[in-house]
Amino acid sequence: MMSDTASEQTTPKISDTPAAQPEASSKGRQPGGVRRVARHASRWLLSVVVVVALVAGGWALTRFATPEVDLSRQASTVVPASVESTRVCPVGFRTGGSITSVDAGDAVGSGSIAAISDSDLTVQSVGQSEPTPFGTAGGVATRDGVSASTVVRTSTDHQSALGVLSGARVDDGQSRGTLLADCTSPTFDSWIGGGSQQVGRSTSVRVVNPSSLASTVTLTVFTGEGQLLSSTGELNVEAGSERVLPVSAVTTTDQQIFVRVQAVRAPVAAFLQQSTVRGLEAGGLDVQAPGAQPATQQNITGVRISGGADRAGLAGEGGWEDTQPVLRLLSPDEGTVAHVTVSGADSRSFDVSLTQGVVVDTPLGDLPDGDYQISITADASIVAAARVTSGGRDQADFTWLQSSDAVTAPLSFAVPSTPTSLALKLSGAPSSTVSVQVDGASRDVQLDDSGIGSLDLSAGQSVEVRPTQAVHLAVVTSGGDGIAAAALAGAESAGAVDVLAR
Is the predicted pLDDT of residue 45 greater than 70, yes or no? Predict the structure, then answer.
């Protein structure tokens, strides 16, 4: 197993029963009433002395404390070393699962992973007893034919540059689609937008616990009707294991979904997956890693609109309504108005009114084909995602893209062998240049006047983005069968933990 047996600690039990005292002699003692009055008077006098001392001490602390010392509690965000040195890849697709029992579902299809780090690496599939060596510092490590969720770790717990992508092309009866994911650090709190539970659509949450401690997970589902009151309760995820949690356990009709996965005791990696079937025909697959935490500003990069003519011909047919691109927004804490700006092959701005806890989908179907970024601002914290499709009837597929935090420090990743055609999408300051190293060679990317740039990638390449100012990044399919996309997040935002200092 991946877990280490935790040693139990036994805490000595402290009895609530006072220890027996020797019985006092009755010879020469005072009458009971006088003795009680004297004892109560002594206690009252002692209490007065203690209160006066505490008040005086508090006054002295206030009077003489150094003005430069802030005694209030301060919160800071850190990335634990063990979290930073771990990535979890949701390779392939999994069907089935259960809320009421421990169930990892069934694997459908297989895929590949690619990793790069400044430390040596190990790799371990969920269920594998021990990790195995995977690659040496500075080199690209790849593995094909992977059919299980996989954990990649650096050989040391010090903070290391570690980037891992996984991808797959699944074609198995009614399960057909292209998958791509940024392998994520385990965390205690994840937000993921996507999925649908209308007829022919199935959505589930995959939870992987790569640590040596069991984790307790809570799943919260938001829909177009608001936050679901049905509770999944606390779900146990054993050390070194995976669970698949079908959203159908809490809703079977909602088309707009955002999920929040919270963990205690041990961090977990959560992923949202969806399959679509129209009649007997496969309609696509998708697996998404978490997006950015709720904030008043969100950005979705890598939105690639294609197949507009094909979608137009399908728009009036039943069951094909969800082939249109949409923007999905949620304000979890309070109502607000989101201001949306779409930039790229076409530009437009609009407002979306949001009610607390209610997921809202806004169609983007009339955008011409091309690359886009979507910027959203609001007075209240929001989360965001966008859906795009391949458009065609014969090779129908879709993908969700999560909002992501800006990357301000060097970020490295390696390119997997599947999908076969990938491109790096960048967004930032219009007409600026972003420094990118591909296999050690400079391949600087010029952003256009809408702030978007693109760089074609090949399997097995190492890529390092070296921004001089904030950029947003995504890797997307650039051709071939199906469509897939993954937002990239830096280590500073993946797996961060808020620490409250006194």
Answer: no
